[in-house]
Design a protein that fits this description.
Layout: H1 34-49, H2 54-68, E1 73-77, E2 80-85, E3 90-95, H3 103-117, H4 123-135, H5 143-160, H6 165-185, H7 189-213, H8 219-226, H9 233-244, H10 248-280, H11 293-310, H12 318-339, H13 344-361, H14 368-375, H15 381-392, H16 396-423
Antiparallel strand pairs: 1-2, 2-3
Helix pairs in contact: 1-2, 1-4, 3-4, 5-6, 5-8, 5-11, 6-7, 6-8, 7-8, 7-10, 9-10, 9-16, 10-15, 11-12, 12-13, 12-14, 13-14, 13-16, 15-16
Length: 430
């Protein structure tokens, strides 16, 4: 499909030597050069693959096409990317799977765009750099590092949920189990499709079994923390942001995907819990043993670093990611005292969004680098999961209440990011 951007409908090359990109917009040509069309198509596909939301992706491409003097229209959904070049009579369609967030490669693409708009790189050279980035083998963490990141993220989540030492230990073991299943599932599309319900089934069974050995243990806290990396809280937040920015098709599709993912996780947990209960017996409700305050600070320090590994960010961005996590978490806690636990996330989202825009405006890289890991401490995925598990447990009132809280938190996050863009306007789309 990539060859369709190299020729016009008449089969003739529209130009081999693309002029330099300049900071100011170029005059529009009667027919854009092939390299410029190829570049915009490659950029769109790469940004989509590395998890860029529709509103940021389209704004970035509109800006670069304007600077290149190539009139074009772009449209992105979680599973497809369209680009139409009216003067060239060319339309591109790329069918893709929703991409995993790769902050390192997103930063490299941002560097290419900076060089292009500043005139330091020619269009043909930018095409070559994007192609080389796309052809480069995806960077994977060593299994030990990946398992450690999953375990740390799950243990930190258990502490945020009020768990004790037992819950932290079981959540860490569950995170390592999820990492193993995720690693094995990458080998084939069929395995990837069932990785989430299988992970939920095994984690819930493991937690129930551990509760009999390590009693007293809070099964809900350990289970939820063990599955925290799989919960689609970030997807739900992006969906609400896209809906708020009038990207209705992408936002609706992403929202539906988040609900479907949560349903598969709930099904796996319900099945695993039921079978493990039949095998080991019923468990009494247990209250987690409270931990010292310093453990919360420790969890806040290591959780953003775990997400740095999972999102494959550059090591040099670790201080920024850690600072964004601390700022967002502290803002959400302070806001909770004034507005309540749900609306308190609005304050956290505003602070994380402002921090990300300051980072981007300082030419350090795309705003997503500190925002995505920072917002992971605020996302409402656990509330959506709690809502559906309440319905499964024949508690419709609790399910409706949790669903409303999840929607409220997601809307607060989306609103917070929009407010942040007003307070500190971003100078770049990414």
């Amino acid at each position: 499909m990539s060859r369709t951007i190299q020729e016009n409908p008449a089969g003739r090359r529209t130009g081999d030597n693309a002029p330099d990109a300049r900071p100011a917009p170029r005059p529009r040509r009667a027919r854009p050069a092939a390299d410029e069309i190829r570049l915009l198509g490659r950029l769109g596909r790469a940004l989509h693959r590395y998890g860029t939301p529709a509103h940021r992706l389209e704004e970035a491409l509109v800006e670069i096409s304007r600077r290149l003097g190539v009139p074009a229209q772009f449209f992105s959904t979680p599973t497809a990317f369209f680009a139409s070049f009216d003067r060239a009579g060319t339309t591109l369609l790329t069918r893709t799977e929703p991409g995993d967030v790769d902050l390192g490669r997103l930063a490299e693409l941002d560097s290419i765009l900076d060089d292009l708009t500043a005139g330091r790189t020619k269009v043909a050279e930018a095409v070559r750099r994007v192609d080389a980035l796309e052809e480069e083998r995806a960077r994977r963490l060593d299994f030990a590092a990946e398992a450690l990141a999953y375990a740390v993220a799950s243990a930190s989540a258990a502490r945020f949920f009020g768990g004790g030492w037992r819950e932290l230990a079981v959540a860490a073991a569950s995170g390592g189990l999820v990492a193993t299943i995720t690693r094995l599932a990458r080998r084939s599309p069929g395995r990837r499709r069932i990785a989430e319900p299988v992970s939920a089934f095994l984690v819930s069974a493991l937690v129930v079994a551990a509760a009999h050995v390590m009693a007293p243990l809070s099964v809900p806290v350990a289970t939820l923390a063990g599955l925290i990396v799989l919960l689609p809280g970030l997807t739900l937040t992006i969906a609400m942001t896209e809906l708020s920015t009038r990207h209705l098709v992408s936002g609706t599709a992403r929202l539906t995907g988040a609900v479907a993912t949560t349903l598969t996780l709930v099904f796996g947990v319900a099945l695993g819990t039921r079978l493990a209960t039949l095998a080991f017996g019923e468990l009494p409700l247990a209250t987690p043993w409270p931990l010292p305050a310093w453990t919360l600070l420790a969890a806040l320090a290591v959780a953003p670093l775990a997400f740095l590994l999972l999102f494959r960010a550059r090591p040099a961005d670790a201080p920024w990611i850690l600072a964004a996590g601390v700022v967002g978490f502290a803002g959400a806690r302070a806001g909770a005292h004034l507005l309540g636990p749900e609306l308190g996330t609005l304050a956290g989202a505003v602070l994380v969004g402002v921090f990300g825009n300051v980072y981007a405006n300082g030419r350090h890289g795309p705003a997503s680098v500190p925002i995505v890991p920072g917002v992971m401490l605020l996302v409402p995925g656990s509330l959506g999961f709690e809502s559906l598990t309440s319905f499964v447990a024949n508690d419709p009132l609790g399910g409706v209440e949790a669903a409303f809280r999840a929607a409220l938190v997601a809307a607060a996050l989306a609103t917070g990011f929009l407010v942040a863009n007003v307070l500190v306007p971003p100078r770049r789309a990414l």
